[in-house]
């Protein structure tokens, strides 16, 4: 029993040390500059580094039904899993083996946020890195903050990223007014 306790403490220390040594890169969350009028309405937006139109987006910025639809379509168990959904990964792996090719993904919204933060080629190695990064994100942020990362970085076409930037560019209004 004592050996098990020592092993668990050693494992926990190793995980914490690895997390501190290799923290997730959050630099892609850098947003463009938003110029507001006296009533807080957006007048103009200057692009983020790299010429990307990106504005920070939080769960509070989007209608609740949009968040509910996102969770229903992308990650039904988002509020309950620790960043990785073993059921979804197992389903995707079985489908891959049966079909001989990828049929559906097993990524959670947290894993997608990790991929949006650190884009990589779609390989098995990259998927393992996404899993590790998803666990890190879950340890560092609340579920709503993780959704905010996804909502800020989700591609909206061309050089538009995030629901606020996409909504303003495509419809001329913030997502809460859609």
Question: How do the strands and helices of this protein lay out in sequence?
Answer:
Elements: H1 2-21, E1 33-36, E2 42-46, E3 53-54, H2 64-74, H3 86-99, H4 109-117, H5 124-140, H6 143-153, E4 155-157, E5 160-161, H7 163-171
Parallel strand pairs: 3-5
Antiparallel strand pairs: 1-2, 4-5
- Helical fraction equals 40-55%
Main sheet specs: 3 strands, mixed
**What share of the residues does DSSP label as strand, in percent?**
5-15%
Run of helices and strands: HEEEHHHHHEEH
**Total DSSP helices:** 7
Give the neighbour order of strands across the main sheet: 3-5-4
The number of distinct β-strands equals: 5
Cα radius of gyration in angstroms: 19 Å
Distance between the termini: 58 Å
Characterize the overall form.
globular
Low-confidence spans: none
Structural class of the secondary elements?
mainly alpha
Q: Determine the mean pLDDT.
A: 90
Which characteristics define this entry?
single chain; 178 residues; mainly alpha; three-stranded mixed beta sheet; two-stranded antiparallel sheet; 51% helix; globular
Architecture overview:
- This protein is 51% helix and 9% strand.
- By secondary structure, it is mainly alpha-helical.
- The strands form two sheets. The protein has a three-stranded mixed beta sheet, covered by helices on one side. A two-stranded antiparallel ribbon has the order 1-2.
- α4 crosses α5 and α4 packs across α6.
- The longest helix is centred in the N-terminal third of the chain and has 20 residues.
- The termini are far apart.
């Amino acid at each position: 029993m004592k050996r098990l306790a020592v092993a668990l403490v050693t494992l926990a220390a190793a995980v914490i040390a690895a997390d501190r040594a290799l923290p997730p890169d959050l630099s892609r969350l850098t947003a463009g500059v938003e110029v507001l009028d006296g009533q807080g309405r957006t007048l103009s937006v200057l692009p983020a580094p790299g010429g990307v139109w990106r504005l920070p987006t939080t769960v509070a910025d989007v209608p609740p039904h949009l968040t509910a639809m996102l969770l229903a379509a992308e990650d039904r168990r988002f509020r309950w899993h620790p960043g990785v959904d073993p059921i979804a990964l197992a389903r995707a792996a079985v489908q891959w083996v049966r079909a001989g090719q990828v049929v559906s993904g097993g990524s959670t919204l947290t894993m997608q946020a990790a991929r949006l933060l650190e884009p990589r080629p779609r390989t098995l190695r990259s998927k393992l890195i996404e899993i590790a990064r998803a666990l890190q994100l879950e340890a560092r942020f609340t579920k709503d903050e993780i959704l905010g990362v996804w909502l800020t970085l989700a591609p909206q076409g061309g050089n538009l990223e995030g629901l606020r930037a996409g909504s303003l560019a495509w419809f001329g209004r913030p997502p809460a007014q859609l």
